[in-house]
């Protein structure tokens, strides 16, 4: 019984000591929220400063991630447009310029972002948003992703289609020569479609599918030759830079392929006969010339030989020998 009373007394003393320690403000150092609340008794502003610092760090990180998310949206839009506009009938440069412009602007904003990140348990302390996104891993996902998009745009020489060469604005203006080329192309395609689309409805975007059904047709070669020649002449007048525009290169190539290979038309067919005749005469002219010269030379030599012989037999400067009369002697 005495032992039980002694144990109860010890527990009472231990409980009292625990309560006293709690009253003095000792707390769990692993619990940040408790630490902030209990130390307000010593410094009322210290807990608020810590919370504001955490909110600021989270805001910086959030801004960085917001830039990245914005870039990913614009990148996705550009790639989707490139797939839609560059697969069937190539028009990627004209259709996707605005998405490429937004993509470039988003990338520039990330690279120029000076926000310092102090988060992730200090692992990113001192790094700027652009540094973290550029060098966060050895594969450099952001750089490689942007490099792929820029390479796709440049591989088609899309910049050559526009007067606006910078990507800091959504305003893209087609070069006047590009506009002129596509106006002439529309008229040329109208002539082509006259032979395949009986409804008279002209849709340049679907003309490729209609033209793919074409067969060799002499009538289209005759009726549309003037329009086709106008198109090729317009292309020939383009400046070297504009002539590289991906949309133009595709359209002139596919039109020439249809005209020459599939429909068996030739814009120079009328001149082909004369070309053959002139080439033949040019080839045979040396033969004819040397043959004529040889024959004429032989005739001339023969005539000179005959004249020399006749002159020697009938030369008036020589005296004939006297004739002796045998009878008189």
UniProtKB/TrEMBL annotation:
Record's keyword terms, sorted: Membrane, Signal, Transmembrane, Transmembrane helix
Chain ranges passing through the membrane: 272-292
Pfam families: OSTMP1
Signal peptide residues on this chain, from the entry's feature table: 1-22
Cellular component terms per the entry's GO annotation: cytosol
Region (Disordered): 310-329
PANTHER family per UniProt: OSTEOPETROSIS ASSOCIATED TRANSMEMBRANE PROTEIN 1, OSTEOPETROSIS-ASSOCIATED TRANSMEMBRANE PROTEIN 1
Name the UniProt record assigns to this protein: Osteopetrosis-associated transmembrane protein 1
Species lineage: Eukaryota, Metazoa, Placozoa, Uniplacotomia, Trichoplacea
